[in-house]
Each structure stands twice: as C-alpha cells, then as structure tokens.
Amino acid sequence: MDDLRELYQEVILDHGKHPRNFRTPDDATAEAHGNNPLCGDQLTVYIKTGADGLVEDVAFIGRGCAISVASASMMTELVKGKTEAEARAIFETFHGMCTGEGDEGDVGEDLDKLKVLSGVRDFPTRVKCATLPWHTLVAALAGDSEVTTE
Amino acid sequence: MTSAQHSDANIQPFDVAKVRADFPILTRTMHDKPLVFLDSAASAQKPRQVIDAVRDVYEREYANVHRGLYEISEAVTARYEGVRETIRRYINAGHTHEIIFTRNATESINLVVASYGRSFLQEGDEVIISELEHHANIVPWQMLRDEKGIVLRIAPISDDGELIMDAFEKLLGPRTKLVAISHMSNVLGTILPVAEITRLSHAAGAKVLLDGCQSVTHIPVDVQALGCDFYVFSGHKLYGPSGIGVLYAREELLDAMPPYMGGGDMISSVTFEKSTWAKLPHKFEAGTPAIAQAIGLGAAIDYVSALGLEQIGAHEHDLLNYGTQQLSSVDGLRLVGTAPAKASVMSFTLDFAHPHDIATIIDRAGVAVRAGHHCAQPLMARMDVPATVRASLGMYNTRADIDALVAALGEVTEIFG
Questions:
Q1: Is B382 left (phi over 0), alpha (psi -120 to 50) or beta?
Q2: What per-residue confidence (pLDDT) applies to B13?
Q3: CATH of domain B3-30+308-416
Q4: How much is the ipTM here?
Q5: pLDDT given at position A106
C-alpha cells in the first residue's frame, strides 16, 4: 500500500475530485483535444493568451482517472500568468520528473507543487495519465487541435 | 446452466484444483501476492499441455510444412493439418477445408472484408453490425464503407446489454447483404441469440458472420446447426498460443471468394503471365504459417474437449453467479452488462473511482483485470461510461479469486471512499 499512498496523495485525490478551472471558457483563443487511445481518456484544454504572450486563462473539461484530472487541474493553476515559453519549460521538467529521467534537485516553487505527481514513475502504465494534459496544453500553445499519447 | 444441473450427470465432476495444477503461471506471484488472474477475456493462460506441444514441435520435429520431402517435414505437416480436423470437430464444420488458419479473429474478419466484401458487396449494399461490437468488427467494415460505398447499419442494444431483436429485425431489408455480429460480448458478457439472428438474416437474403472470440471458450458451438456463413475466433483466448486464429466459412463461399493475400503456398501454378490458386483451404493461406502455434491450438482444443466445454461452462457460470452476487454488495459498484443470458464477464464501475485507478490499486494486491474501453468505444458511449473495469473468468478461476477481487476493491474504497 505504501507506493499506492505515495501515488494517491491527498492533494491528488482533492484535485481529482474537485478539479480547478474545470469549465469551458467563452473567450478562449486556442483549444486542443487530448486523447489517450489506450484507455479512452479525453480532455480539452482551453487557453487565452494575451498580446504580450502571457497565458491569461487556462481551463479544461474531460473525463479521466484521478491522476489525469489532478494533473490537468494543477496544470491550470500553475500555468496561468506564465509566458508560453515558461509553460513549455515547466512541462519539460515535469515530464522528466514523471519518467524518472529528470533532475531530482531544486526545481523551484512552481514545480515543487507538481512533485506530488511524480509518484507515477513507479507505475509506468500511468505516466501518460499525468502527462496527457500537458501534451494537450503544448498542442494548444502551438496551434494544434489534436494530440494523442501514441 | 448451473453446476447443480450437472451434478447427477454421468460425467466427471469438474476438478478446478486439478485444472489449476496444469497452468504453471498460476503458481507465480504479482507484487508478492498470489496471482489472481481475472483477464482471460483479453487472453487466457496456457496449460502445460499447450506449452509442451509447442516446445515438442521445436525440439523434435520442426520443419516447414507442405514443402519438405523428408520425414520430419512430413510429420509436422501431418500434425499441423491434423489441427484442422480438431477444429472442424470442435465447431462441427462440414469439412476440414472450411477451416482457414489466420493470425487471429481480427485477421479473419479482415479476410472476409477484403475478399468477400470487396468482391460481392456493392455501393448501397447494407451491412448490419451491433452496438456492442469490438473494434475488430467495426473498423474493417468502415474501411470497406469508405472504399465501396456500402452502408453500415447499427443494431441497438438495451440498457441491460441485450440485442433489441425488434429493432434488429426492422434493420433487415432487401439491401441487407451481410450481418456481422458477436456471439458473445467481450465487455458485457451477453450471449446473443445467434441462431435466431442467423435465421432472420438468411430469410432476408443476408449472409451472417459471427465473431466467436469470446464464445468458443465457454459455449459449445455448432456452426452447421447455427447455419452461419462465417465464424471467426482467436486461438489465444482458447488457452492456445497467440498468432493463430481461425476463419470458418462455408465451402461454396470460400470457392467463390478470391484469395486474400498472394504468395507461396496459396498457388497451384505461377508464370509471369498468370497464376492459378491452390485448392481450399490453402488458397487463403499465403506464406509460411504459424506452425507451432497451430499445433499448440490443437493441443488447447484437445485439453478443453477432454474436460468438456459444458463442464467448464457450468463451473464458470457458478463463478459468474457468485461474482455477480459478491460484487453487487460493494458500495457504489455498478455492473455494466446485466443480460439474463451472459457468461464469464463482469464489467463494472465504482462511482468514486475511475477504472484505471481501480486497476492500479488492485494490481498491487495481485489481482489482474482489464480497465479501459476494451476496444469497444462505441459501446462505452452507449452505456454512458468512459471506461469499465472488467473481471473475466477462465476455467482455472475459483471463488477465492472473486473474494480476492472484492477484498482488493476494499483497498480502493479505503483510498478513494
């Protein structure tokens, strides 16, 4: 049960049950649809970027497991107010955390919050659950409308 | 069918302990817990008899089939071809040359689509499938639709997971050329009334393809009594190796159908101007086949036949009843698929946890189930669930396996509840 407790920490269960920014905004400037064909999880990420390149709003809707919903929820909280470049950089480090290939050291305050999700590294089949929302965000930032984990 | 009905019958009682001893993998652990394997609908485990048959081929008499003019090639050819007769008997086909070896049921369906479908279906012709089909019995027909302009009609199911026969009958019409439908649902466990479906379809002038992937492991199948035109299944769900599957088709259809793939073994003669085809069944079997796998499938069918499919079915049905009852007592659990006629599959959701989270948690308790859409996304949409957990039974499962599943679900409740 220990590694399960590590995976399903309270903060993940909380975000999974009560996802933040779980809505369809009517002023989004871009959106992308993420799909994990292996399991059928789907979500749509909406972003609103300003003229200065800042991500002014992020929201999502979709259905998925606790890990993917929590990851999406935490992502929306973290990315709001960041530049597109900052958002991409956070994802890169976060991806490393989830696969166990990243730097374990000081990752800064923002990424520190995402460390609760790094328990997926012990569950290889679940890594994509944590990263799908981010892949979808990056697709939206790049102007792509579809992304799959395959 | 219940085990009680069989208790007085003049047959050996089903000895699950003895059966389990034949499956070497069941002695292993998963995450330091005894393996509780409840994923046989995805692929079944293999008895020692199958493993030995495959090893024996490679150790004692492996050579290519249909080619060698030497003793071991002739011996392995005889063994390989002998499996056709084993399969013929198992599904009571009229002739051994009506048994075509493929890689799996998916390839069998693709063969029918590519050969029969391309040759005999025209623009505007209708093919009926159902809402509960596996992707393997949806996507090939969609590909044919896009290529030839056929029309796909979808027969609806009820909330319990039964085919709605009135609605199915209404879909049948003068343009219906083929009905392609599951004998048993891989997600819901529903056993479809395929004899009646075949009778109605034939009356409307349509051919019938039955996907027997799930049914051949639980229910005696008699393709002549059913009267179906095509019957497909995979070896690996029937306790045999992966990489070998079966297409049964009636002789006159196979005779009329063009080859599926060209190559060696499927020809009678070849010149650069023209080639002629081998006789059945070889016309549909280009290239070196899955020799050891076919022989392994023969051993699997011998194993199942020796135990008796009715005995196995009765044992599994007893477990299905027990499992259904035990799962129904779990708070927040919804069974998906509650048709009165069903076998060996229990799909469910918990209202407080997603199927993937459930599967991850119970994996750590040694319980192997499948979670996801089970290659049946349209069915998930019909049942209004994103995914389900599926516990599926094989001949080796016991009530203790069900108890382990229910106990492991308790850990899910502890974390999520």
A1: alpha
A2: 81
A3: 3.90.1150.10
A4: 0.90
A5: 67
In words, the CATH class of domain B51-305 is alpha beta
Please indicate whether residue B213 is annotated as part of the active site.
Answer: no
In a domain, A145, yes or no: no
In this complex, the residue of B353, B356, B364 whose CB is nearest that of residue A39 is B356
Distance between B133 CA and the closest CA of chain A, angstroms:
16
Report which DSSP code applies to B114.
I
Contact B191, B344 (CB under 8 A): no
Q: Which residues of chain B have pLDDT under 70?
A: 1-12
Residue percentage of chain A with pLDDT more than 70? 95
Q: How far apart are CA B306 and CA B300, in angstroms?
A: 10
pTM of the model: 0.93
Residue in B354, B377, B380 nearest the CB of A66: B354
Q: Indicate yes or no: CB of A129 within 8 angstroms of CB of B356.
A: yes
With an 8 Å Cβ cutoff, is A57 touching chain B? no
Instruction: Flag if A67 and B411 touch (Cβ within 8 Å).
Output: no
Residues B356-394 have pLDDT tens digits of 999 999 999 999 999 999 999 999 999 999 899 999 999
Residue A49, CA distances (Å) to A59, A116, B234, B251 in order: 12, 28, 52, 65
| B163 has a chain A CB within 8 A of its CB | no
Going by C-beta distance under 8 Å and a sequence separation of 6 or more, which residues neighbour residue B8? none
